[in-house]
Amino acid sequence: MLRIALPAVFALICTAAAAEPLHGIAMHGQPALPADYKSFPYVNPDVKKGGHITYGVVGTFDNLNPFILKSMRTTARGMWDPDYGNLVYESLLQRSRDEPFTLYGLLAESVEWDDNRTFIQFNLNPKAKWADGQPVTAEDVMFTFELLRDKGRVPFSTRLNLVSKMEKVGERGVRFTFNDKADRETPMVFGLMPVLPKHLIDPETFDRSSLTPPVGSGPYKIKTVKPGESITFERDPNYWGKDIPSKVGMDNYDRITVQYFLQDTTLFEAFKKGDVDVYPDGSPGHWATAYNFPAVSSGAVIKDTFQPQLPSGMFGFVFNTRRPIFQNVKLREGLSLVFDFEWANKNLFSGAYKRTESFWQNSELSSFGVPADAHELAMLGPLKDKIDPEILDGTYKLPVTDGSGRDRKVLKQAVDVLKEAGYSIKNGKMTDAKGKALAFEIMTQNADQEKLAIAYQRSLQTLGITTSIRTVDDSQYQSRTNSFDYDVIVKSYVSSLSPGNEQLSYWASASRDREGSSNFAGVADPDVDTAIKHLLTARSDEDFTAAVRSHDRLLLSGHYVLPLYHIDQQWIARSKRIGHPDKVPLYGYQLPAWWDQSAQ
Asked: What interhelical angle do 447-461 and 341-348 show, nearest 10?
């Protein structure tokens, strides 16, 4: 008689159960929507499609391929777009913006995986078709992964590095078996991969910039292209996916135009004249004072405020630790104390902002004001000794000044920390032990950043620290940040409720010297690498929360970024003709779910 040990029996049962086709998958826990859901909760499923919208962006474009290295800054918006939607190309699965990280069927109608996430299988929807009427096939999926490995840009080019086997299963299935480089987020990331048509692409020319309209599987086709000026999309009346649940209530215009402008002031003037239909506004001063034009008074333009449930993220001055002077953590800490947030908030922003104290502030993932509990301490192990004790016990807080720009108490605190770093003031100059004056450059890319830098410069000067400010144009800024050619820059780190592999690009040792990565601070710390590993391998919600808080504490203790401010609202002005759903999802307003009121 065949005998199987009980653990093996349970393993077989669990694997079999986990491999049942699923309508959706979540990074942690289960999808919120049942298998028979009709639409996402933040759309109007009964909206009538029609009409048009014009978006406005600052920049230019000379390419329609968003997946190659030459496209990093110059691809036409809308092709593969987190804001306007993936109008031409589509992914295997669709993300719900009302859950931290959950994916539902799109090109793949179902998925299969095991409890350990050692593989994922995408089962393509038999209705999925390209705009030329040809079916989307398993061969298209495998071709795309291989093409982007050979000719695509990061991160698309690195996906197959995590795969030990890619194979077609049945008529419409593609299974990826992962190697030991993969983590628990890997199958989720694969679900967001685009799929390209094998029968229409020449791999030899794929990595060249092109303005030839491509064929995708998405809801729109390209109608007209004016290089560097505008691109117009028209709805595909034969779009295959218009009735699947994850697309109901989306893609509601017959025509979408994206206009390009050289600067934001010109874009705003176009919005005032009615040439652009929506204007997302990120400036408190501008939001409070710039909307005194006739269209607002008449009600033709409406100002909307949305309240997402997102973590704050981190916006601040970033110290480039590739520079020798910034390898001193006490120096970074001391410099972080000098900035007078209260003065800047009062004089530059009319008191609109809140001080940021954590990369995940305003969420349960934040370590701010939260002492590390026994579970987190056990996860940290010896790493806890690398964390500032006040950050570890949740009592750390950035100093609050008197708002004068010269708060002596706070400046003395900064001087004391700089003294620990080996610096002191001699003859009016902050110098190191060898008498070398402390000096560095702040690189900015627009007027708002320059104002912040000037405020910081003024405070630094009171301590004898010399700073120069260099404001550069967009192309030079991108070139210098891609090659890490700067001392200090102003950057924004977006934080989600499901942090994952993007943390590798921001903070991991492997990304420090990879040109074009997002490791702007030049962090290469094995302790941070360990914290990211904990985050990526967490299985339970408890483990995940502890891992993110630990990571947060290590980053704060490293003083890689001088935290500035955040606002917990989203502002957008729109033409009265543009409507939107009443429900605001977790991630805030979603433009692909908006519509033209005149078509209703």
From this structure: 140
